Amino acid sequence: MGVTVDEFLAMVDTLPETRQGQGGDWISLKVHDKGFGYLWERTETVGLKATIEEQMALVAERPEVFEIQFTAGRFGWVVVHLDKIDADELLELVTEAWCLTAPRHLVEAHEAAIGLTTPS
InterPro entries attached here (predicted)? Predict the structure, then answer.
């Protein structure tokens, strides 16, 4: 169990039109100039956008893995400890953060490309 910083960044690279920016002690993760996550390499933690309900559930279920970062509007950002999470779960969480932020047409195109939607 556990995900390295490089493995996490490789996950982010699978999501269309993402961009990384240096923010001092952190790396910001954006899609269409809107943030969906942050990486703090020094502490090997990431902050990811989630719904408030998801934030609360994650922290309540496994406080050793997740922490509340902050809330903003209808979103609750969660801190994830990379050394305490498996890759599949982290990929799901980072993809969800991206989906909450990316334009609808980009999300639909990505889901179709990976086979999550059925043809109309």
Answer: YjbR-like_sf, YjbR/MT2646/Rv2570-like
